[in-house]
Design a protein that fits this description.
By secondary structure, the chain is mostly helical. It is built from 18 helices and no strands. Helix 2 runs antiparallel to helix 6, helix 7 runs antiparallel to helix 13 and helix 14 runs antiparallel to helix 17.
Length: 463
């Protein structure tokens, strides 16, 4: 029997394709692919420690520039998204990552350090635009009953892409049992992949053209002045349940610097490549499991939020305790572990546990934001708040990591302290999660039916 529209007319095949193209699932897939080509590849390099270079100090200094720019520009791009639309802010976010990867190549081959600073700046501008827009799209576009699943699709495709990247890195570094830089050929492959981000971003639907499976539609705010946009951003920043999440978003990024320095200091190039390959699989599994659980409606939403936080708390606690124990030992013995070195598994384990928590938090953290608001504009502002806090944490932690006067033990002690300071506020915010109010922030069902009929009657010709 042919599928019918709400007006009783059969749905043309062309319209079915159009409806899929405008669906939240298709947009989650494209968003995941964009994320893979941009921050996914950045993370593949970060998982090698020091961006794959021989020493972490100058790369960490460059990362300070990247994240300092993001602290300032994330709220700006959140406000501008109301004027330009999330799609075009996302497109802008795909331009500046490739120059950074190119600068790593030039630094590795020619020792061109000024280009690394320039690439860090372009990366910071684009990352501010991309992080805000992808978070708002990833959380705001999906239907309520499959929000976590589509967030997991977004992050999962990022990880699948990073698996490809890390596989390339591993293949190009097999047999390199010494400390030092990764193969320069790896950068050329990854730069080519990053150039695919721009055309992919053009496939994202503007929010007003999104067609959800359940017939609802995100609120599309009226265009405002820049001054009004910043006033609304300030209003979201002052919301207690959002502000209370800032410390955990901050600490989630903070330890990344230590983990990168840890890998660079105590592991061979081959060992770093293997660790980077493993953590991408771990990240994918963590994304999928958390995405499935957080959408498991047989368990109440408040319970899912609390269980997720308890699991994250356990992962982070295990990571910091284990890292503190090993760092106290390694700081004296200064070992270098290759994959065949006895004790490699013991040494790499805390690094793996950290990435379990990091990737599980990615789904849980943005799902929690979606529990407090479904309006696109507020989600954009909330994303800017947490992205700025993550960037601030990275700015400070990379500044510490770029100093040869700050020991790894001191670095991990600070990271652990920042985490423990975030526990009370995160716990309080988690306990504020309530059951969803049906279509509380979406357009009415009558409006959605009318919109669907309009699209179908046009035969999918609208763009």
């Amino acid at each position: 029997m042919a599928e019918l529209t709400s007006a009783g007319n059969p749905v043309p095949a062309r319209s079915k394709l159009y409806l899929f193209y405008r669906s939240s699932l298709f947009n989650a897939i494209i968003l995941g692919l964009v994320s893979f080509t941009q921050p996914g590849i950045w993370m593949a390099l970060a998982s090698l420690g020091a961006g794959g270079l021989a020493e972490p100090f100058f790369v960490n200094a460059a990362n300070v520039i990247t994240f300092a720019i993001m602290v300032v520009l994330s709220p700006v791009f959140a406000v501008l998204s109301n004027r330009w639309s999330l799609k075009w802010v996302l497109v802008l976010g795909t331009i500046g990552f490739a120059p950074y990867s190119a600068s790593l190549y030039c630094n590795s081959v020619y020792g061109t350090q000024w280009f690394l600073l320039f690439g860090a700046a372009t990366c910071g501008i684009s990352a501010a635009a991309l992080w805000v827009s992808e978070a708002a799209i990833g959380v705001g576009y999906p239907e309520e009953n499959r929000k976590a699943a589509l967030i997991a699709v977004w992050f999962g495709l990022n990880k699948i892409g990073t698996i490809i990247s890390s596989s390339i890195l591993l293949a190009l570094n097999v047999g390199n049992s010494q400390q030092g830089a990764t193969s320069p050929k790896a950068y050329l492959v990854l730069i080519a992949l990053q150039c695919l981000g721009l055309p992919l971003a053009l496939l994202i639907s503007p929010v007003d053209k999104l067609i959800r499976k359940d017939g609802t539609k995100p609120k599309v705010p009226p265009r405002t002045t820049l001054l009004e946009g910043f006033r609304r951003f300030w209003h979201v920043l002052r919301r207690k349940e959002i502000a209370a999440l800032v410390p955990i978003f901050l600490t989630n990024q903070w330890a990344q610097t230590y983990e990168g320095n840890y890998l660079t200091t105590y592991f061979s190039v081959q060992g770093r490549a293997v660790a980077g390959f493993i953590v991408t699989w771990i990240g994918l599994i963590a994304n999928v499991i958390f995405g499935w659980f957080l959408d498991y409606t047989r368990v109440s939403r408040p319970t899912r939020a609390k269980v997720g936080w308890i699991v994250l708390f356990a992962c982070y606690t295990a990571t910091y305790i284990y890292n503190l124990v090993l760092e106290a030992e390694f700081g004296k013995s200064h070992p270098v572990y290759d994959i065949y070195t006895p004790g490699f598994a013991r040494a790499v384990l805390p690094y793996l546990i950290y990435w379990i928590g990091y990737n599980a938090f990615a789904v849980w953290g943005y799902w929690i934001l979606g529990c407090f608001d479904t309006g696109i504009e507020n989600l954009t502002f909330a994303s800017a708040v947490v992205r700025s806090s993550e960037s601030l944490a990275s700015t400070i932690s990379y500044a510490l990591g770029s100093s040869r006067n700050v020991t790894l033990l001191q670095n991990i002690v600070v990271a652990a302290a920042v985490f423990w300071a975030s526990v009370p506020t995160t716990t309080w915010s988690t306990w504020q999660v309530k059951e969803p109010e049906k279509h509380a922030d979406d357009s009415s069902e009558d409006e959605q039916t009318e919109e669907t009929v309009k699209v179908v009657d046009k035969g999918g010709s609208s763009v």
